Amino acid sequence: MNTQLTENKVFEKISFRENILAAGVYEECTFNTCNFNGAQLAGITFRNCSFNNCDCSLASLKNTILQDVRFLNSKLLGVQFNQCNGFLLRVDFENCMLKLAGFYKLKLKNTRFKNCNLQEADFSEADLTGAAFENCDLLQTTFMKTNLEKADFRSASHYSINPEINRIRGARFSIPGVTGLLTTYDIEIEW
User: What is the pTM of this model?
Assistant: First the structure.
């Protein structure tokens, strides 16, 4: 099978909703202000790529490979990352809108989420060992049977994590955010 390889290319202001991205491998490519809203990215490989100011909302990532991919100032509403090929999956998010994103059962060790809106995202059964949630909004985000060992929640807000059904050994929290570990118990905390 002959796979198309695209290297070191910059894509500017292209709507991949209308212009379908050709199947193949994209290596060291940059996508600036591109529209992937609802785009079919199934089976495409992205290596060392950067998505800047892109709208990737509801993009289909079935069997898509994301190796060392960075999302910056991008919108990824409802993206189901759990449909990606999990082999060598490595992503980084900064200033991104990730509401309703799905990360179910993914191995996301040491993944960095910085200044992201992760409201209602699903991290059920994911491995987030050593992950960092820097200044992230985690309102109604699901953590169920999630490995959060050594994860950093010190500057995160609105999280609710049940320590009885998640692994949190070595995770880092700050006051008053740490009260998010007690919401399961339906108790009142006063300062």
Answer: 0.93
